[in-house]
Amino acid sequence: MSGYAAEFMDAVRAKNSGEPEFLQAVAEVVDSCNIVLDRHPELREAKILERMVEPERVIIFRVPWQDDAGEFQINRGFRIEMNSAIGPYKGGLRFHPSVNLGILKFLAFEQVYKNALTTLPMGGGKGGSDFDPKGKSDGEVMRFCQSFMTELQRHIGPDTDVPAGDIGVGGREIGFLFGQYKRLRNEFTGVLTGKGLNWGGSLIRPEATGYGCVYFAAEMLATKGDSLEGKTCLVSGSGNVAQYTIEKILDMGGTVVTASDSSGFVYDEAGIDREKLAFLMELKNVTRGRIKEYADKYPSAVFKPVDPALDHNPLWAIKADCAFPSATQNEINAADAANLLGNGVKLVAEGANMPSSPDAVRAFVNAGILYAPGKASNAGGVATSGLEMSQNSMRLSWPREEVDERLHTIMRNIHAACVNAANEYGTPGNYVNGANIAGFLKVAGAMKDQGLV
Ligand code: NDP
After folding, report:
1. Do 117 and 264 share a domain, yes or no?
2. Are residues 222 and 352 in the same domain?
3. Which of 240, 382, 411 has the most ligand 1 atoms within 8 A of CB, as the residue to mutate?
4. Catalytic residue (choose from 126, 136, 276, 375)
5. What DSSP state is assigned to residue 137?
6. CATH no. for residue 267?
7. Co-location of 237 and 363 in the same domain
8. Has residue 199 been placed in a domain?
9. pTM over 0.85
10. Among residues 189, 254, 272, 414, which is most buried (max CB within 10 A)?
11. Beta strands 72-83 and 89-95, pairing class
12. How far is CA 166 from CA 45, 92, 127, 169, 382, in A?
């Protein structure tokens, strides 16, 4: 990085020094978009990038709640309203002990470009709390969600800011949050997405991120005359995104041999078939158990606990054709990328947000494999949230096939937009540049049209 980009990053670093994930996400976009600013000096003069890295609004609040033992507990709540140039703020809520301002700013920043790529009218935002739902009773989760929403409801609305789920926020949490919003505002509106089917949710929303990621991967393989049929795939995570990634890979004829959670991973050489996937879904969504129980049940699988002494994750050292990281940020480091490439991986499609470290991204791009950054390949979730918002506004629900077809079309279009932007700016096959440039140009154009905003 040199010249304007380097000076720009120095300034961003000076202002956001304790936020490494945010700086990582910004550096990647700046690196891709430098050439755009060279060709469009009017965007540099208008200080579009300088404006984009400053959230429109950051809300931080206290979330007091009472646990089952009667103890008072205090967590911190956040909502980052990053950019509303092309629509109301839109992006998930994450409940995880690692949540802090920098992580949510990185997620909100990525969300802006991702939402632009979907072609739907959604700005970017993200929120959450350092609350850990793991090991909490339903009553504790409900009381936390009610307290969280008691403050958040002042800042959101169907035309202002529409949160959804993310790590630690699934159907149960969205239900509690929606119920409290409705009580306080006396409004039944599409203020959250990922709602239950009986109360305004969309068919295919739970499946959308995983399905969309696999649709995107299939589009990438098709550019080489290839498909997922017969491919061995690694999937990390075992939550919402991982589960439906596995399901769609099975639909497309691939074999998935891994799944993980924060305690370790299972390697099932025989493959995770539909019956085993149903067990995994029950384990993670209903009984809320740990991934080791999968290996306890199926003798074809072995469980490997996380080993903090290792400089790499042995999951990524298993020989496979395709990898779908679907757990969390920076879960693939340079050593993991080297292991994947050494074993001849052909494709990496990110279901999680920013799961590859900058060194890993560089290694994938330099190796010329099919590598899809999360802001393109996992955009199916928010795209289907956009479809849920449309159905809520029209007060009707589309059938499953219709939503799935729309999702599939959106993923094809995102793929085409990335390919075209990468070609136009002289880096054919580079989906990182393609996604960043296509997303940036759309948001930048809208900001310019709207004056000094
Ligand atoms: P879930 O909470 O449903 O599942 C998260 C999974 O990742 C769990 O298996 C969890 O294990 C694991 N995990 C979380 N944090 C860590 C960690 N620090 N180390 C190791 N494993 C970890 O979340 P989602 O499936 O919804 O989200 C997964 C990823 O996909 C995130 O990056 C999210 O931002 C991204 N994403 C999600 C979308 C959605 O629609 N849900 C849309 C677009 C992106 P454990 O249970 O042990 O914590």
Report:
1. no
2. yes
3. 240
4. 126
5. -
6. 3.40.50.720
7. yes
8. no
9. yes
10. 414
11. unpaired
12. 36, 5, 9, 5, 11
Rounded Cα gap, residues 449 and 447, in angstroms = 5
Q: Give the β-pairing of 72-83 and 347-349.
A: unpaired
Q: Is 126 a catalytic residue?
A: yes
Range of the domain at 263: 208-377
Question: What residues does ligand 1 touch, defined as CB less than 6 Å away?
Answer: 165-168, 170, 209, 237-242, 261-263, 326-328, 351-353, 378, 381
Residues 118-177: tens digit of each pLDDT: 999 999 999 999 999 999 999 999 999 999 999 999 999 999 999 999 999 999 999 999
Ligand 1 nearest atom to the CA of residue 208, by list position: 40
- Expressed in angstroms and rounded, the spacing between residue 423 Cα and the centre of ligand 1 is 32
| Number of domains within the chain | 3
Q: Measured at the alpha carbon of residue 389, what is the angle toward residues 375 and 56, in degrees to the nearest 5? A: 55
Sorted by sequence, the CB contacts under 8 Å of residue 337 that are 6+ apart come out as 316, 356, 357, 359, 360, 363, 364
Condensed to tens digits (0 to 9), the pLDDT of residues 70-117 reads 999 999 999 999 999 999 999 999 999 999 999 999 999 999 999 999
CA of 167 to the centre of ligand 1 (A): 4
- The pLDDT value given to residue 3: 86
What is the spatial distance between Cα 389 and Cα 39, in angstroms, rounded to a whole number? Answer: 36
Which segments within 244-379 are labelled E, that is strand? Answer: 255-256, 258-261, 264-268, 301-305, 322-324, 347-349, 370-372
One domain, residues 178 and 112: yes
Residue nearest to atom 38 of ligand 1 (CA): 166
Which ligand 1 atom minimizes the distance to the CA of 385?
40
Nearest CA to ligand 1 atom 40: 381
- Say yes or no: 176 and 281 in one domain: no
User: Which atom in ligand 1 lies closest to the alpha carbon of residue 306?
Assistant: 20
CA dihedral angle for residue 263, residue 96, residue 108, residue 57, rounded to 10 degrees: -160
pLDDT digits (tens, 9 = 90+) for 32-73: 999 999 999 999 999 999 999 999 999 999 999 999 999 999
Q: Find the 236 Cα to ligand 1 centroid distance in Å.
A: 9
- H-type alpha helices, 200-323: 205-222, 240-251, 274-285, 292-297
Give the residue carrying structure tokens 């755009």: 36
Handedness of CA 319, 207, 213, 351 (dihedral sign): negative
Chain-centroid distance of CA 335 in Å reads 23
d(CA 366, CA 352): 21
Phi-psi label, residue 310: left if phi above 0, alpha if psi -120 to 50, beta otherwise: beta
